[in-house]
Amino acid sequence: MRSIWRTLGPVWRRHIALLCLADAVVGASFGALAMGSGLPGWLPVLLSLVVFAGAAQFMFVGILAAGGNPFAAVAAGLLVNARHLPFGFAVREAIGHGWLRRLVGSHLMADETVAFTLAEADPARRRVVYWATGMALFVCWNLGVLLGVYGGTVVHDTDALGLDAAFPAVLVAVVLPALRDPVTRRAALVGAAVALAATTVLPAGLPVLLALVGVLFAVRWGRAKPSPDGSGVLP
Amino acid sequence: MTSTPTLVLAALVLAVGTLAFRLAGPALSSRVELSAEVGRLMSTAAVVLLTALVAVTALTQGHGFAGVARPAGVGVAALLAWRRAPFVLVVLGAAATAAGLRLLGLP
């Protein structure tokens, strides 16, 4: 862990630290919200350790808190997490080989980890970025949730702090360089439009998956390339 | 309220299912050798999914529009990122814009 942190360099360390801070606050709000809805305190902690996927956790707890069926809560959570399937194919080289590495590395997969990893052009450094981001987020997210559960009302309203804008902002900063490639950009814009249209009628999770329709446009009109210089906001 | 064993079971089923989604790519890669073309498509698919995630989380809440503050915050972030502003500034700019607009009474 220490050698990974050193290899990372100061710029990536700063990016990851900031991401960690934002995620810890969101984690704290998740813990507080779960407690506030009358669910037992161990549930948000258990979910954060074994599921480790923010959107699915919010959905799972939200459905249970509304008096929903546990089957519905599991199904909704799985629907939201289905996007990790293509993520796994995209970052498999960064995770590495060997069953233990694959098992642990896969568990650390998160939107931000995948986005950071794909923003790094060098394959060897991709591995370092993936593992450092994954481990740091796992620790910060779970500490945040603990704080929310046992600190109670540390964070009342993350929306008042504008934190609901922070998550999409992180992803914007990270995917923007990849969107400099015209083929990828066309695919992404078509996908985003499809997802937005579907959001008005379909349950959460499904619209984002439907965005994969956009990939067909990358196949149809030329091959997708990584961004030419691999540079952008991130190193 | 749902019983404790049911809650534990539900959390574990969600955990195992999620891990299965995550593990499929890395686990299959030792048996299935993906061509460079397919590998590139997978990266494109990840970027497409992340972009859609940005659009949906920035603009919508439930089945409707998210209001003004959050999309404005993300818009400021996109502008800052496009101008290659430091990452810290991009994230803080988004949060500050959204928080500021809400302070002014915008949803």
TrEMBL record, chain A:
It is found in: Cell membrane. It holds the Pfam family AzlC. It is a multi-pass membrane protein. Its main location: membrane. The chain crosses the membrane at residues 16-36, 128-149, 161-179, 191-219. Keywords: Cell membrane, Membrane, Transmembrane, Transmembrane helix, Transport. InterPro entries: Brnchd-chn_aa_trnsp_permease. The keyword ATP-binding does not apply. Belongs to the AzlC family. This is 4-azaleucine resistance transporter AzlC.
UniProtKB/TrEMBL annotation, chain B:
It comes from the Bacteria. Keywords: Membrane, Transmembrane, Transmembrane helix. The chain crosses the membrane at residues 45-66, 87-105. InterPro entries: Brnchd-chn_aa_trnsp_AzlD (IPR008407). This is Branched-subunit amino acid transport protein. It comes from Microlunatus panaciterrae. The lineage of its organism: Bacteria, Bacillati, Actinomycetota, Actinomycetes, Propionibacteriales.
